[in-house]
Design brief:
The complex is a heterodimer.
Chain A lengths: L2 H28 L8 E6 L14 H10 L4 E3 L7 E3 L2 E8 L2 E6 L14 H9 L17 E6 L4 E6 L21 H6 L15 E7 L3 E6 L12 E6 L3 H9 L5 E4 L1 H9 L6 E6 L3 E6 L9 H10 L2 H7 L30 H11 L4 E8 L2 H15 L3 E8 L1 H4 L2 H5 L5 E6 L5 H5 L18 H12 L3 H18 L2 E5 L2 E6 L3 E2 L14 E2 L1
Parallel strand pairs in A: 1-10, 14-15, 14-16
Antiparallel strand pairs in A: 2-3, 4-5, 5-7, 6-7, 8-9, 9-10, 11-18, 12-18, 13-16, 13-17, 19-20
Helix pairs in contact in A: 7-9, 8-10, 14-15
Chain B lengths: L1 H28 L4 H6 L5 H10 L6 H13 L13 H23 L2 H10 L4 H15 L2 H15 L14 H35 L2 H8 L4 H38 L5 H10 L3 H29 L1 H8 L1
Helix pairs in contact in B: 1-13, 5-9, 5-11, 5-13, 6-7, 6-9, 7-9, 8-9, 8-11, 9-11, 10-11, 11-12, 11-13, 12-13, 13-14
The chains are: A alpha+beta, B mainly alpha.
Chain lengths: 517, 315
């Protein structure tokens, strides 16, 4: 066969292929799947990597854990942080140290591991105390003494000391997840991606790592009936790629980048819904109080007055979030609802700099290298230039950024960052204790009263008193002039008109609450 | 030829050892602690220390490198630091998706050979001019931009092709359908490159003595093109395709992220971000092997097509 005849052959093949292509395209387009009540396709930023509640890593893990495993109580879907009974028929705090519970009978584990019993609850909670397990989340159950099993379905949780977060960040969150004692012991006491048994509303039908996970209803679930026959979870790293997939009809639910919100509000895909939820996470500019450059309180005060938070919100976050009022997010106990953060006061800032005798100052600002953080840093740089402070912006990839305090210690100067938090204020306040300096307390806040209040609030079951404690702790942070609160990054969720996505108040997905619209 | 092949094999092995060792050193010198990523923010210093010791992270880099090489020699690529799954299992799951992407991208890049040949034969004609402009335009466009525009046009507007995922691997037609846009966004630039290279080589070869002699003997243009011109003119294009393997593999990082496809590129990106050292090393090793194999294969093809190459080296 000559070269030309080969080319001719190819040309014919291409002609045939283009004809077949047009046919297949037609068939494919008509077969595109969108939510119809039987199936829903949902985006997660990452694939899950660890389903063991004692070792979960990220939101993708927790989304799966919430759907796959039972808990005595769970967060309600909706805009307010509230909990409701889940696997428990009843649960009651008898006194500060005692919680009685009774499981609903008939909840079954997958893979023939039998019924979910109080023994499973005991095993699930007490394993956190096991030194050999070395769970990084053992703090969730630090005050646990033991779980007493009174019969197959009932038990009593005995605490060593009062522990207020138990109802907000332990029982309805990862610490409250019940795992199968038999299956977990068989796996050697812990597991990662292959739990021996699950007993949530949904179970895993198939998992293609980094491609998709398919959930189907679990027959052994004895709660509310699952609304979908199939939930397909697609790990899509890039939010823009997910938005394109949504527009192409290949996704039913995805969160979107803040930069896309205005466009979506102006021209939303037909029939879709957009929902914005403020998270419990917090973004702020931190000044290292231990650094010699910030020893003069007037310099710190000047920086606080000079930084234009409203412009940062507009410029870097497209005006979607509202300005933060402190460490603790709206909806959580301790949030300063009535507090009004001071407006920018550039003249006051200049006067303070003059008073301090510092005419010019060079500082380094470390931040993760995302577009939003870099834009915010550039605004801060311009703001501080007005009062004679030259800011050098150091963008770091996330791996290097989260190690920067460990490397620089007291030499660290300013950082722009975001911490995540579940639904209890103690999760946020714990990072700024004395013993967290250089670990997560990158502002080197060292305040006895703050530390005492944190530990006292953990034991305080009176909501009003506890709230006052957190309020005072935020005042202490303000008085240090080491924290410039920017926002509680909102989660914006885009869903097709055929789906009512179940969302926790922070916008994270509660797959068990998804319903057809 | 055997001696030449052996030489190439030894060189390939040396390149792999050097590349992997260098990468091992580099990833360990970059700031970032995998222990923080694995354990999250709430781990106590004792738990972190225990894990560091378990992963040998407290030991000198050279010792860690020896542990790594020892593991490799025993077929142990280590465990994914986050999921604890064997790295080899993860690589074997992800690798076929990337290899298929690379092979198809290379296949469509070979379209540059007939295009370049035709343009050279009809030098300065309409086809040559159009292809010249089109090639340069396509070459200048990064895979990222092309991929995004193709997604918007073919997936969102026309809804002809899927925008995400690799499709159902048990259904080859679905799988191929999911390949069209990613392969095109990577491979189309190489059609331009190859066609330009083949065109200029053909023009050069066209006036060489043996071609003129063939023409003097009255051989047909088709025979001359096939037997005497293309064989020589294809050499630089084949060399270029070997080099393109490295480029295409690096492009897969972007393309696999944009199209949310599984594969080595996306895996590498995620592993680097999370300082998942064993996974980084596994992906680097696999990618290096493919790149070195690609280069070696092109060297061997060149040696077969043009014996002067190997004879010179063997001497």
């Amino acid at each position: 066969m000559t070269l030309n005849t080969q080319f001719c052959g190819l040309a014919v093949l291409f002609k045939k292929a283009s004809f077949i292509t047009s046919l297949v395209v037609g068939l494919f387009v008509s077969g595109l799947t969108v939510a119809n009540g039987a199936e829903v396709k949902v985006r997660q930023k990452n694939d899950f990597a660890n389903l063991d509640p004692a070792f979960w890593q990220n939101e993708a893990d927790m989304t799966m854990i919430h759907a796959l495993f039972p808990k005595l109580i769970e967060y309600k879907a909706g805009a307010e942080w509230e909990w409701e009974l889940s696997a428990a028929e009843s649960i009651e705090q008898v006194d500060d140290l005692t919680i009685k519970f009774k499981l609903k009978p008939g909840l079954k584990w997958t893979n023939d591991y039998g019924e979910v019993t109080a023994e499973d609850v005991k095993y699930s909670y007490e394993r956190y105390l096991d030194e050999e397990l070395n769970s990084p989340n053992k703090g969730d159950w630090a005050p646990l003494d033991n779980v007493e099993v009174t019969d197959t379905y009932s038990g009593i949780i005995h605490l060593k000391e009062p522990f207020a977060p138990i109802w907000w960040s332990t029982l309805p969150f990862s610490g409250g997840v019940i795992v199968s004692k038999a299956a977990t012991e068989k796996a050697g006491g812990k597991f990662t991606t292959e739990p021996g048994a699950t007993a949530g509303m949904y179970k895993i039908e198939s998992w293609k790592p980094r491609e998709s996970t398919v959930l189907v209803p679990h027959d052994g679930w004895n709660g509310k009936k699952a609304a979908y026959d199939k939930i397909t979870i697609l790990p899509i790293t890039e939010p823009k790629a997910a938005e394109i997939a949504f527009e192409a009809g290949e996704l039913d639910v995805t969160d979107v980048a803040l930069s896309s919100v205005q466009n979506l509000k102006d021209a939303r895909p037909a029939g879709s819904n957009l929902e914005t939820r403020p998270s419990a996470d917090y973004t702020w500019l931190g000044l290292n109080l231990a650094n010699p450059k910030f020893q003069d309180e007037r310099v710190r005060q000047a920086i606080v007055k000079a930084v234009d938070v409203e412009t940062i919100l507009q410029g870097a976050y497209f005006g979607v979030p509202t300005r933060s009022k402190g460490l603790i997010a709206p909806g959580l106990l301790g949030h300063r609802n009535t507090y009004v953060p001071p407006a920018r006061d550039i003249e006051g800032a200049k006067a303070l700099m003059e008073e301090s005798g510092v005419s010019s100052l060079d500082v380094e600002l470390e931040l993760p290298n995302t577009v939003e953080f870099v834009t915010a840093a550039q605004i801060i740089q311009a703001n501080l230039a007005e009062i004679g402070i030259n800011v050098q912006i150091n963008q770091l990839d996330s791996g290097a950024f989260w190690n920067v305090a460990d490397e620089k210690k007291e030499a660290l100067e300013m950082t722009l960052k975001n911490y995540t938090s579940p639904a209890d204020a103690s999760w946020s306040t714990q990072w700024f204790l004395k013993d967290q300096k250089a670990v997560w307390n990158w502002e080197w806040l060292d305040n006895e009263e703050y530390d005492n209040l944190h530990y006292a609030a953990l034991k305080e079951n009176d909501k009003t008193k506890r709230s006052e404690m957190y309020y005072r702790m935020q005042e202490i942070m303000d008085e240090s002039y080491g924290f410039i609160w920017i926002m509680h990054p909102p989660r914006v969720v885009l869903s097709s008109g055929s789906v009512l996505p179940g969302l926790f108040p922070n916008g994270h997905l509660k797959l068990s609450a998804f319903k057809p619209n | 030829m055997i001696l030449y092949t052996l030489n190439r094999l030894l060189l390939a092995l040396l390149i792999i050892v050097i590349a992997v060792s260098t990468m091992f050193m580099m990833i360990h010198l970059v700031p970032g602690d995998p222990v923080n990523v694995i354990l999250g923010p709430r781990a106590t210093p004792e738990i972190k220390e225990a894990l560091r010791a378990q992963l040998h992270l407290n030991e000198p880099i050279l010792t860690q490198l020896l542990y790594f090489i020892d593991g490799l020699l025993h077929g142990d690529f280590g465990q994914d630091l986050i999921s604890n799954r064997p790295v080899l299992d993860i690589l074997l799951e992800q690798f076929p998706h990337t290899i298929i992407l690379v092979v198809f991208a290379l296949l469509i890049s070979t379209l540059g050979i007939p295009i370049g040949s035709y343009a050279a034969i009809h030098r300065n004609g309409l086809f040559d001019r159009i292809m010249g402009t089109a090639s340069i335009s396509i070459i200048a466009m990064p895979a990222l931009v092309l991929g995004l525009y193709m997604l918007l046009f073919f997936s969102v507007e026309l809804r002809w092709f899927p925008s995400i995922g690799a499709g159902d691997s048990s259904d080859w037609s679905d799988y191929l359908w999911h390949l069209v846009l990613p392969v095109t966004s990577i491979g189309i630039a190489w059609i331009g490159y190859i066609s330009r290279v083949v065109r200029s080589s053909m023009i050069e070869v066209k006036n060489q003595n043996h071609v003129r002699m063939a023409r003097a003997f009255g051989l047909s243009e088709l025979t001359i093109t096939k037997r005497y011109m293309l064989r020589l003119a294809a050499l630089p294009a084949i060399t270029m395709m070997g080099v393109s393997v490295a480029y295409i593999i690096s492009s897969t990082v972007i393309v696999e992220i944009i199209f949310s496809r599984p594969g080595i590129g996306r895996l590498l990106y995620e592993a680097v971000i999370s300082r998942n050292y064993p996974l980084v090393m596994g992906t680097v090793l696999f990618s290096t092997i493919v790149i070195v194999a690609g280069t070696m294969i092109t060297d061997l093809i060149n040696a077969l097509l043009d014996p002067r190459t190997r004879i010179k080296e063997e001497q």
